[in-house]
Design brief:
By secondary structure, the protein is α+β, with helices and mostly antiparallel strands. It has 2 domains: about 5-160, 2,3-Dihydroxybiphenyl 1,2-Dioxygenase, domain 1, CATH 3.10.180; about 165-375, 2,3-Dihydroxybiphenyl 1,2-Dioxygenase, domain 1, CATH 3.10.180. It is about 25% helix and about 35% strand. The protein contains 12 helices and 17 strands. It has helices at about 20-30, 40-45, 70-80, 95-105, 180-190, 245-250, 265-275, 285-290, 290-295, 305-315, 335-340, 365-375; strands spanning about 5-15, 35-40, 50-55, 60-65, 85-90, 115, 120-125, 135-140, 150-160, 165-175, 195-200, 215-220, 230-235, 255-265, 315-320, 325-330, 345-355. The protein is globular, with a radius of gyration of 21 Å. The mean pLDDT is about 90.
Length: about 375
């Protein structure tokens, strides 16, 4: 498409929760994010919800808790477990982005609104999406001091110091019962392009299995900003027991399954996260038994990391076949972390890229088996 939205970056994610204290414990006490701002009493009264923003590196999460009935957070949580309700993008020019989106058939929730503070202006608008009840918001910042209108930004961040070395959000992954409508919307409305894809099923490597899981995955991206969306749908056989379908059922519709945080040194990060009690999805020992042969097949002469250390920390490795690789690991889903189904099936990924810009196709089987074990242990399958 000739016209660009002028996307710059993922500004923040707005996450709707029932318990802000629980979120603060995870993000500040364990993940070492800093608390950088909170909603003002006026905003809380108007929106019937309380907000707190946490930041580490270039990643900002705004957690929002209902205050009584009627607000956006209450409406979201009345339909879904806790999860991402809004993805916020920074754009070069909000008016231009709005015009392009409207021309392409986007459905605006609001027109462009302008807010002013002592530092400058913020222009913003929102649209609906095929991501269930997750909306997209676009912001243009021109010296605006606060995070958002009605938000009080702290002069000095409180809490964590990002000791785990998180950077920006690497990508956002969403699950759909059927993803083609969403892919077409991303292409024709957002102007994104297909970047990467894979189709996988555990039955492919286990003929005769009576259970298993599979998916089709397509990554869409904005070439100018590098923003990437990974999108999954379940595949047969065993469609209903696929962890993608289980997510859709537990989330009560499509939505954001996980967000990947970049790490400067994933080995150091995971070690310190485990020391602080952060729970990760387990990886079977057989994965590491086969890893030396996989490393050779990836065209890698060696890894910078010790295989024994990767096994100990349960970090996954994948390569692009051209001598480049990536390392990744997945935290447990919110529902499993808190032993509360309403905490939702969302989880975080930690990723370090060493040249490989793919999405760990070689790790899908290990990840899927891990998620399925967790789901079975919790009696969810």
């Amino acid at each position: 498409m000739s016209k660009s939205l002028g996307l710059l970056r993922i500004d923040s994610l707005h996450y709707y929760v029932r318990d802000l204290a629980r979120s603060r414990e995870l993000f500040v006490d364990k993940l070492d994010f800093a608390e950088v701002g909170t909603s003002t009493p006026q905003l809380e009264e108007e929106g019937r919800q309380r907000s707190v923003a946490f930041r580490a590196g270039d990643a900002t999460f705004v957690f929002i808790e209902p205050l009584g009935k009627g607000g956006r957070a209450w409406r979201f949580l009345n339909k879904h477990p806790e999860g991402v309700g809004t993805v916020v993008f920074e754009v070069e020019d909000a008016e231009a982005a709005f015009a392009v989106l409207e021309e392409r058939g986007a459905t605006p929730i609001t027109g462009v609104r302008t807010f002013v503070d002592d530092g400058g202006t913020l222009k913003t608008f929102s649209i609906t999406t095929p991501f269930g009840d997750t909306t997209f918001r676009f912001v243009e910042r021109r010296g605006y001091l606060s995070l958002f209108p009605g938000f009080a930004t702290f002069a000095s961040p409180r809490g964590g110091g990002n000791r785990h070395g998180f950077g920006a959000i690497d990508h956002i992954t969403s699950n759909f019962p059927t993803m083609k409508p969403a892919l077409l919307w991303m292409e024709h409305v957002l102007g994104l392009e297909e970047y990467w894809g894979v189709s996988f099923h555990t039955a492919d490597v286990a003929p005769g299995a009576t259970s298993g899981t599979g998916l089709k995955s397509t990554v869409m991206w904005d070439r100018e900003s590098g923003i990437k969306f990974a999108n999954n749908e379940p595949s047969r056989p065993f469609f209903r027991s696929s962890q993608i379908n289980v997510f859709s059922e537990e989330n009560r519709g499509p939505g954001v399954q996980h967000v990947a945080l970049q790490a400067a040194d994933i080995v150091q990060a995971v070690r310190s996260l485990r020391d602080r009690g952060v729970p990760f999805m387990p990886t079977p020992g057989t994965y590491y038994d086969a890893l030396p042969d996989r490393i050779l097949a990836m065209g890698l002469e060696r890894l910078d990391e010790s295989l024994d250390e990767l096994r100990e920390l349960e970090v996954l490795v994948d390569g692009d076949g051209r001598g480049r690789y990536m390392l990744q690991i997945f935290l447990k889903e919110g529902a499993d972390q808190h032993a509360d189904p309403e905490a939702g099936p969302f989880f975080l990924e930690v990723i370090q890229r060493k040249g490989d810009q793919g999405f760990g196709a070689g790790n899908f089987r290990a990840l899927f088996e891990s998620i399925e074990r967790e789901q079975r242990a919790a009696g969810r399958v």
